[in-house]
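Holo prediction — zinc ion.
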Amino acid sequence: MTGSEPSPILAGLSCRCPRCGQGRLFRGYLKVAPRCERCDLDLAFADSGDGPAIFIIFIVGFLVVALAAITSSLVSLHPLVHLAIWLPVTLALCLALLPPFKGVMIALQYRHGAEEGRPL
Ligand SMILES: [Zn+2]
């Protein structure tokens, strides 16, 4: 780690390498690239597990339920209309937020040297 490393939050949100902040972190939608194309960082350590999904479930769940409740208090809609509105919104938000959240988790994992525990 050097002082010139990018912020793990900014590098993660932009889905960039946690060491140089330039190379792409993902090859495809959520598949982590084997190495950084710029600084050659081996990204084999990257394993965010279920962390990003848990954060997104809480954030998107709270947001969509709040928006649905506000909408419901303002206008009377048939439940199927609510479903037609909020189901695609939920899906789009979850799919849009997964890569940046996974990027942040991997960048924080790199910054703090987090790795799988080993028996003593
Ligand atoms: Zn890099």
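READOUT: The chain is about 55% helix and 0% strand.
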